[in-house]
Amino acid sequence: MEKAVVFYSKALNFNFNDEDLIKRYFSLLFQYSSMEEVYRFISDESLLDNETNADRLMRVLLNLPGTLKTVEKLSRLDVYKNKKGISIKLLWKNNQTDKAFNLLNKLSFKQLLMVLNEGFFDFTDFILLCLAADAKELLHSFAEINEGSANTIHFLLEENGQQKIETSTYLALLKRTICLEQFELFERLQIQVQF
Fold this sequence. Notes:
Elements: H1 2-14, H2 19-32, H3 35-44, H4 51-62, H5 68-75, H6 84-93, H7 97-105, H8 109-118, H9 123-132, H10 136-145, H11 147-156, H12 167-179, H13 183-192
Helix pairs in contact: 1-2, 2-4, 5-6, 6-7, 10-11, 12-13
């Protein structure tokens, strides 16, 4: 374990742009350290001093299981002020689906695109939250303006039984439900597919 932490630490010092590396490193830290130790590490290593690095770290932590308390603590910092995507995702991770969807639904189209582009709450989250909130109309609207996601959305809405979904897309959706600890939604998605 110590060798892995040292290896990842050196790699991160060399390249903090690799979100997969950040994910693997912090997965180890969260597995073997307390929330306070991880938070202290983030502060001691000045990982939040650069806004780009702070955003990259937050995107990773938001999608790691078991990080909720740390993410909540970090989200109160000035660097994350006015980041609506973080607020939406935290509400959802706290099983407040209706509140998360209401906050999402209050956004103008331009604001929604900005939130999705920041990546704290991304298009995968959007699709899954809309499914959880049973917001079929909103999903239909997006399917009409985004041809690339139309098949996936129609498949998830169980329409006409003709739609297919790419295995990689389906697995990404399942993986995200696990990261968000949305296990009922995970089960709904599993029931939908028969291989």
